[in-house]
């Protein structure tokens, strides 16, 4: 399985008609296939010339799920009711589709009652269904919630045509409601309301009356479920006084411990991303979650992180809302076909997402993709070409408080010559970069590497890069100088040499970090086999005397992040360097400073591969909570086709303890060398208050695809 495992959490269920109730809809059908017998078979297509009423049966094997469609012409002429033989519980379809499931080892018979005067085409089809918190196969396929048996721990209160969800979400709902019944014997069934329509649209769209505001309940990513209540009535009635039709206006009577227990089970699935309750209930649910910390600390932490309420989330007095993250998006091939690696990502102030990447199939351009809504919907992949047809790589992104995105990158000819550093701006809301402008001096005869862009505390664009004598100049052909270029006027860059060119030595891999609204900008870089950190109040004056050595005898390819006076630097020890490309790493190492980079705590080993694992492309992010995330690819060796993209998240500011490592996506192929399956030199990540936005490479197919996804971390 390839698995992925907002403001802070995306507005998945948003204001107005957020998550609620009712409607009709029809699909035209025709009388096709042989006449139906009273006992249907699975995988059958047959027809009925209905005039009056008729009852059909369908034998379900052990643990079998079957989707039935009874399409009439016209659909309104048919009444379709489903249930199970020998039981009184019946559900009217209000559409052509019903699903049945036998969760037991014994045989079970579904009963289908038809009435009306119409030509009816009937089909039955078996599909995979395995109730579980985690999904193993075809997890994104939309399937219908099966009709409940009388013994089941749930009931349906929404028209069945609005109960199509992603397989992973339907299976989770079945598994967790069943587990709740085991945990609380005698627990009354809980009511399940809307998922999505069969076509993935918001329920009610079929009758031009959407019951929720997009993107809530689109694509089968969300479900509404009644509260477990202290009275035992879990049928979906308001759990509090409600006079305005939107919010509780008095005390609630939910059972916070049971609701928290449900949430705790849901959030063991890494795809869960949002839970919404009414504001009156939030504090009690949070307290109940904390009381269950000892049962599953990580699940409680994640549930607490994604729990929301507020004035933008109306109509949750009678149910809570659970949403799953969108599947990873192949942003290098949105209405286009490209191969991309070496990713960068930035998140705007209103949930805008920009991803940039090196193109492997059109190397004189960068690729980029833009989303206005947290990566839910995307504009087509676009290209940004370097002047003169030069080859483009090493993209870096940042964004300002107004939502303007900035990208910088390296452009050159091969073998390495005629090297330049460019940048471009995408005005807020445009999602498109303008014409490139050069940062370096066109007439200078240098080579450059690894540009990186950030904004100073004053909002000044800052771009750092390594510089060295141009190839063929007769001088030592090595990068020997670290440069920071600043543009106080927003367009004209002035270069400052931070380190080098003397004494002669190798200097490279500069990386800027700055907290939005902070007081300093920091620069980490490699110099003579060691990693150093310097700081500046404005990005233009740098105190060389305050330079601090952070690591020695590492790859000297650091990453840094800052939050207030806290600074974290990540580097690694290499296991092997390929002739060309990125090295495999033996250990990932982290250091923390709590005094603005003046002194550092002892080195923390984030990951040690030992004899069994190697890592690639470590990166670091922090997002306002003071807990750093270290992401990396992990496999057994170069070429491992079952490698994973993973994250280790610190439990505290000092990063002295970490949560268990989570797999964000798998499989990928660990590849150090250049080629169509290359991973690049780095992978971009951004943390927004515990919501990790990450751009990575899926190279399991014929080439490398740049992907974007999100997950809520503990």
Give a verbal description of the structure.
The strands form eleven sheets. Strands 1, 2, 3, 4, 5, 6 and 7 form a seven-stranded mixed β-sheet that branches. A four-stranded mixed β-sheet has the order 12-15-13-14. It has a four-stranded antiparallel β-sheet with strand order 16-43-42-41. Among the domains are: 1-20 and 134-324, 2-Layer Sandwich (Muramoyl-pentapeptide Carboxypeptidase, domain 2); 24-127, Jelly Rolls, CATH 2.60.120; 567-714, Neuraminidase, CATH 2.120.10. The protein is 7% helix and 40% strand. 56% of the residues are buried. It has 714 residues and is mainly beta. It has four helices and 43 strands.
**What would the average pLDDT be, to the nearest integer?**
93
Low-pLDDT stretches = 1-29
Largest β-sheet summary: 7 strands, mixed
Tally of separate helices:
4
CATH architecture of the domain at 1-20 and 134-324: 2-Layer Sandwich
User: Into which percentage range does the β-strand content fall?
Assistant: 35-45%
Briefly note the structural class of the backbone.
mainly beta
Helix content: under 10%
Please give the number of β-strands. Answer: 43
CATH topology of the domain at 1-20 and 134-324: Muramoyl-pentapeptide Carboxypeptidase, domain 2
